Protein 1
Amino acid sequence: MVEVVGTAPTSAMVITKFVYRHSWKTNLINIKGITRDSITIMKLTKEQLKEIKNQQSQTNNTKRVISPELEKILYDAIPALDHGFVRVVDYMGDDTSIVQAARVSYGKGTKQVSTDSGLIKYLMRHWHSTPFEMCEIKYHIKLPIFIARQWIRHRTANVNEYSARYSILDKEFYLPTSENLAAQSTSNRQGRGNVLEGDQAKEVLKLLKDDAERTYANYEIMLNERYDGSTIDENKKGLARELARMNLTLNTYTQWYWKTDLLNLMNFLRLRADHHAQYEIRVYADIMLDTLKKWVPITYEAFMDYRVGGTEISAKGKLVIKKLIKGEEISIQDSGLSKREWNELMEAFNLNDKMI
Amino acid sequence: MVEVVGTAPTSAMVITKFVYRHSWKTNLINIKGITRDSITIMKLTKEQLKEIKNQQSQTNNTKRVISPELEKILYDAIPALDHGFVRVVDYMGDDTSIVQAARVSYGKGTKQVSTDSGLIKYLMRHWHSTPFEMCEIKYHIKLPIFIARQWIRHRTANVNEYSARYSILDKEFYLPTSENLAAQSTSNRQGRGNVLEGDQAKEVLKLLKDDAERTYANYEIMLNERYDGSTIDENKKGLARELARMNLTLNTYTQWYWKTDLLNLMNFLRLRADHHAQYEIRVYADIMLDTLKKWVPITYEAFMDYRVGGTEISAKGKLVIKKLIKGEEISIQDSGLSKREWNELMEAFNLNDKMI
Amino acid sequence: MVEVVGTAPTSAMVITKFVYRHSWKTNLINIKGITRDSITIMKLTKEQLKEIKNQQSQTNNTKRVISPELEKILYDAIPALDHGFVRVVDYMGDDTSIVQAARVSYGKGTKQVSTDSGLIKYLMRHWHSTPFEMCEIKYHIKLPIFIARQWIRHRTANVNEYSARYSILDKEFYLPTSENLAAQSTSNRQGRGNVLEGDQAKEVLKLLKDDAERTYANYEIMLNERYDGSTIDENKKGLARELARMNLTLNTYTQWYWKTDLLNLMNFLRLRADHHAQYEIRVYADIMLDTLKKWVPITYEAFMDYRVGGTEISAKGKLVIKKLIKGEEISIQDSGLSKREWNELMEAFNLNDKMI
Amino acid sequence: MVEVVGTAPTSAMVITKFVYRHSWKTNLINIKGITRDSITIMKLTKEQLKEIKNQQSQTNNTKRVISPELEKILYDAIPALDHGFVRVVDYMGDDTSIVQAARVSYGKGTKQVSTDSGLIKYLMRHWHSTPFEMCEIKYHIKLPIFIARQWIRHRTANVNEYSARYSILDKEFYLPTSENLAAQSTSNRQGRGNVLEGDQAKEVLKLLKDDAERTYANYEIMLNERYDGSTIDENKKGLARELARMNLTLNTYTQWYWKTDLLNLMNFLRLRADHHAQYEIRVYADIMLDTLKKWVPITYEAFMDYRVGGTEISAKGKLVIKKLIKGEEISIQDSGLSKREWNELMEAFNLNDKMI
């Protein structure tokens, strides 16, 4: 599974297989566990399998535009991390919806741009934002709480999260694979350095696993209820759910419906699929990038060219580049750039020999 | 298409006739005009008829949920005022999408509410907002600019408006029918009083019509271009469109794509379908209320009961009502209410004899 | 302290005393601990005391309007729960700013409402929202993560949260006092029932305390760094902070700057100071209600009358009330209300004998 | 007051003169008119002069941070176009507020960036948005309606506009100076070409002036009320204001309070102070850029360097620049760029000889 995440499954069959390893309902049925790094991974419940099957089996007629490639993976649970998933559960519009809106705005003015692809590229290049707001997508996401806390900072989305005030959280926690067990970077306060190895890696994984399991077990004791709904001690009351949840660790999984428009989805992906983003959220962003490609392929191409693969250059940076093109000498002192800025600029143009 | 349009209140026949009288494209074809209050009303263009026909003739298969009643009127141009229209051009979700989101949020907690209808009513009553954000709708609207300026104040929507920087506006202006030619209220600064009559009504209509036509004609002269695209004087340049438009009057029609979620649609309708709203925007809101009913019928019922037909009572007002129920005497002096508040309260409960 | 929280301190002196018991910096100075339920409560750091003193000692001249009562408590750390606080750190506008904006909007139309107080009440009663958006406030809040997760769902605010990707979280966790250790309600999925007592209460508190301390200690081990910045084992690397944080429990404290306008503050308070809100967030909302009163006293009065103390009645509910006022018989069957709705209505008007 | 106004760039004297030519109240006092392009320009009213004097004469003590340069021009009416103005009427925070918020977010992590200036530049370069949201500013703006319609599309602001439903609009219309009377660009659908000259210019100005005056005069006739509040014909009723306004042209002035945070102000300025923006809105944006400089001078510098003076380059564009730096041949065919993109790229780096 690990290999597939981030590049996205290439066929419905692959996805179907993975689906069995995930769950977004309680009342798990007792199927043989799959283990990785000696952690048992939860499986799909009967209820959940049935729900997906029902959703996927419907064939409705609509006069709305459809996105054929996205329809193929609609409702699929694409695995993310060890217990998470990304599901596209609804959408509205496709590439032509952007073009339609732009042509209303610009009227005859758009006739100069002859093709849909040309128009979408033009809009992307010149930061015309409103036509991209005309498409909407809704995801069902399962993710660790500490990642949900990063994610929710994107305010321009609609969210319905599983509430631990009302219901008991599933017994599922994120545990990094050993190759993702990075040390703190010594050069960068927010970054990761090399991977921890040997005994220290084992120790860390054991601490994470033991603490998550113990706090979850105590959560059940406080609730006086197991995650399958059975009561522990008939003579006791349970602590209020809204209180007991505070004992859980931040790697516990939660889930939500997350709906946003195409413009804000791209803003999200631009930040979260970037290599500066935390690995754990990037895994989700990479999967979503793939759903973007299926949904609005022309917009996806323009987004990759102008946003993801592009660069911004400051006024001072432009002067440096102009001199470099002319073959003139330029030093960091003359440029007015800080060392950090200088190096970022040189790196962007692969001028590694000029980095200092 | 034509047969379906007639879901609006009055009659299908009338509406059907009107459909042909509206236009959202330039290049009008020359069909015999229809007059009302001696104003020629524009007709649908060939291009436009073809576009609607094309949109409505598509039948796509989708795994998404659909709203059968809304599908029936999808893309129809429902007439509004003398040249405007409301078209639903896309949507996402239905009543079950709200229920689905709520059940994810509240998990097993929602089992107490056994039916979809009961759950939606509960959500509406207790101002649970996020599940209603899970549905989205997109309209194509043609409307006078002075109404567009009220409308745009609802910020939580996505908008692409026809741009008069790029293109020439159609020669279409709103002129009230004589029964809507209201005098300024003398008791209420924002309200309308009785209808103007006789010569004064005729004079006002003539002023509105003449000024709109003259300023439009001068708009063409300044542009050196007629609205059909032909040049007026080959030896002259035209004033920039972004400047010439400033000569148009505020009853000129514009158009836009307007997309919002169900929660914000209801916030819009609550204010704009209210009897305090200006008549001209209420015409649009009333049509949209009807599309709401087709789209999400259960939500519509709850909305009408709790929001539109409901009342809010202040803390002081509650004390008054409590005394009235007990049959106790209560005077405005004792109540702490202002005269205006007192009367609003009495009116809400049909206690007209207690109004002062 | 416990007695004061929620009703808000009544004098600057009281606040000053409490200030010493809270902390939003690391590097705690070693002052004698205060214990409650055998949990040591953190105290202010030297750095923090100095920062507050500096902020409070400045006296700047401004032509802007000021709110005299709010100035008195500016920068004070008002205690909330066991380690949290609420600080007002900046604001813009006062009651007159609302009036000024309304008078621009409504021009001469507002002359009918003669006083500022009358105008503000009118705006509140008729849901005129934009004038209340003209005032802005910024808080510095320290709060448990599980409460922060509820809070952040209010999207119309600006937030800068302490980042555990960059920095190490303080060793502070929320532990309920014994009187707040409520059992799960058996009648209401989200509610609290009676308080847990005796041995079970002690057991729960011990579990919460032990789990928080153990997971925090293991957090330090994984980081290979103590919260005072000292290294644990010079021969080891530390796990990346962005990963190690996942081991912390949800009652760990975080902090943020939270800025919003007056309208959205009232929307927040309406929901979070309500008795349906979780006790732990209500503690914060109650303190903020008190800052609202100091900041914009006229608006506060109108808010309490129309929003907090008021009631909404559905169309069906109105019919019931009308009949009750007339002294007519009315049964739940005739009303069309559900049992739940019926009881909510009767309770709102203290008609407890009619509840079923 | 008059003496204080002159803080704007050019000279106090010039600005002082202009101040007298603007008005945001009705009830104009009768001072000798000043003419430009033979259009009488309105003057300040007594009421307005008094209001500004009152606002500017207050000296309040505050513990809040202040921005000394912005205080100097607080409440001043800085002229814009022929009858418009920009007034800063309130603000919250300064450069240090951004730093303070960033240091809370990034904690010890920010210690690497030693100065406030360095930190703000870092935040700007890496699109860290939330710290810039911690500052807020409120403007009072008078502007033509067709510009207001562009402006209002920036949704992330709080607005209270003068309502022509309630009050009568001032008799003030925007008329371009002859040097701004641009022809429609023939190469660019949204652009301006050369200036109209001679008789055509005179004709256009006359049309604009006459149509604005006639429609305003008819507006008064329909209202049966002059803009000074006097009744025209005692025996007639007036048309409702909400209707009569539709007869006004789009160059009629309106006014509003407009409040936004620093991040969204910069987003606005980035688009509206750009040379692609319509001249008439750029006049306002330029004035606001100057207020930005006074308010948060460090942020202003970073904004000019990274946003206004900077450039974005697509992935394909980067490859072209890399080759140019290496001195390699590159043609548009090899680049994969469209002609338009190629030329935009060459222009950005002053490689005019490479444009095709």
Note: Residues 278 and 297 of chain A are 26 Å apart (CA to CA).
Protein 2
Amino acid sequence: MNKQKILLLVLDGLGDRPDERLNDQTPLEAARTPYLNYMAERGATGLLDVVGVGVRPGSDTAHLALLGYDPAKYYSGRGPIEAAGVGIAVGKGDVAFRANFASIMGNGQVVDRRAGRIESVKAFEPALNKIKVPGFQFTFKAGCEHRGALVVRGKGVSSEVNGNDPGVEGNREKEIKPTTSAPEAKATAAAVEAYLKQARRCLANHPLNKKRRKQKLPLANTILLRGAGAAPELTPFKDKYGLDAAGIAGGGLYRGVAKTLGMDVINVNGATGGKDSNILAKINAAKTTLARKDFIFVHVKGADDYGHDGDALGKKAFIERVDAAVRELLTLENTVVAVTADHSTPCQLKAHSGDPVPLLIYGKGVRRDCTRKFGERDCAVGGLGRLRGLDLMPELINVSGRAEIYGA
Amino acid sequence: MNKQKILLLVLDGLGDRPDERLNDQTPLEAARTPYLNYMAERGATGLLDVVGVGVRPGSDTAHLALLGYDPAKYYSGRGPIEAAGVGIAVGKGDVAFRANFASIMGNGQVVDRRAGRIESVKAFEPALNKIKVPGFQFTFKAGCEHRGALVVRGKGVSSEVNGNDPGVEGNREKEIKPTTSAPEAKATAAAVEAYLKQARRCLANHPLNKKRRKQKLPLANTILLRGAGAAPELTPFKDKYGLDAAGIAGGGLYRGVAKTLGMDVINVNGATGGKDSNILAKINAAKTTLARKDFIFVHVKGADDYGHDGDALGKKAFIERVDAAVRELLTLENTVVAVTADHSTPCQLKAHSGDPVPLLIYGKGVRRDCTRKFGERDCAVGGLGRLRGLDLMPELINVSGRAEIYGA
């Protein structure tokens, strides 16, 4: 059997609800998408409950499910995925946090949870990585803008600790506390507190903050930690599916998912992980990469951002930009293309919802259905029916001619 | 996110098969249902396999599944649900039976399994509750007509006993026997036998039966027990979903399900649990109750009765009566309405079947589909696809804006 390659395009937050501003259509339904429709017409469509029916997924759990890893088994918090994304190897026993730089007052009150969306916190890395806490090692690495990840190593380090992010500006930074009575949790909380105390001191006097003070910019004078977790123990993607895989994503989380599963992460110029990302560059990079890989996961964020902003017209326009880039996929040979989302982000809600997401699978061997358009309600009557996120990889493995026979 | 309230209307036995008498339509398809259609057109529809594909559910297992409790885990026989329905608190370790009063001859032959559908057996309660069996306590409480429930308490009381109902009139009452070799089962069977022996004696001389003898009415001179079970250990509905809930139902079983899950049960004048039930009164009571509750479960029995009678025309007419009452639901604000059934009761079969049941969900935030009518075959191409009973609650939690995010 000819084994085809697989391209999985995840349009973050694509799914939506009928919107009055779009004449009771969803942004995807309202968008002019000739190339996605071309694939829908010649392919098969359906709806996907990414984590489960009615389950409202985060982007982390959703991506694990889409790539075939049951989040109930393999999700251990967002920290380790973010850490993998910025390039820290999270080993067995390590505990990782998402880290955001923020501005605090002398009394601990958080006045800006993103430190004025500071361009980069890379300059803080050397100083922060010099901090010593007896019995523990801390590794900080910067991500995009105000973001980064912090990994704690040490004998008996525990992920059973909360974060210090108050969540709301105007509230005071919280104390890191154990969430169980285990002595390891207590010791870890104390160690992280000790680290943060030193970090605040070193940030206060750091040249970058001195410069920002002069420029009257918000100081990056504390680190807000969230999502403590140990690295999940999982079978790498290649061993699980026999697919040599790569990921293309701007955002740290999505790069982190790819790295966590052992995929190569391809850097693309102009892939920002935001609304302004160069979608065409990502699609073209995916095409190039497919020459040497079996599977490529391409993540495009923008639709989710417009959903969170409640901007249905913006979301529609963004989808049309995606469609223009998707044109490049029509000429791919010997490749099964799947287009779907990690979750719905309805503009009415400005938040993720548990609504199922549209799915299309296009390529040789796909059992073409009667659907001619890529939209939520078109996909609802598609030939793939209503599947679960964990069904996607087996379906793609089958269509691409890679499934082993079960039985004889 | 705005949290909406939820109204779940269960039309017992609604699902059916195309029927020659209705020009090869089902009763629901043939019925004139402008209000249900209005909701279907503006909402989303689908089919529900209440317990599983092809599984032919009892009303008890079906209701557990619809309300999100897997019957494979939480169903422990009908006895404890009926007991909860008539108002006996079934504690841990107690064993409950459904109890029907019947007429027997001196030789034990059952001549009327419903004792001439005696109006009430409440008058027997005091005498029956005086019966003593060493080491065990028995509590009897009357339900509607010839029905009631019997609860056995005692150290090591066991549910591993059969009932004494021969099932068929003309056969002799069976002996209560243990279904395993456990000494507890043996002791329980003997205790229940001893109770029944005394019960028969006390019923024979009871003033109510003396009166019935004079009136030449069938005597209620024995109790047929079925469905022995211990109370299921389950998380109350409120704790499971964060929904303060109430149930409206005439029938003891449905009231029992609501009570077993910790819901308030609302009494409605004219709610008989039969074909003649005042549907409008129930719907209006549901609307009133929603002012102070988050979730209301409304059970309407009639369609199932017509199905068991094989009366397709009667079922169609009953559904039209339901539709007229459903009109009142169209003006509900801030509420997601779901209409479905616990199982199909096809008139051709005069019995429950494993056919999936139609489902509609109507309210703000529902992803409207292309279906414009509430019927079995219309719902089969609806936007919700084919779901399982256990999917219903998560779907309603999502649509009502109450789902917690899973992951980050």
Note: The longest helix of chain B spans residues 183-204.
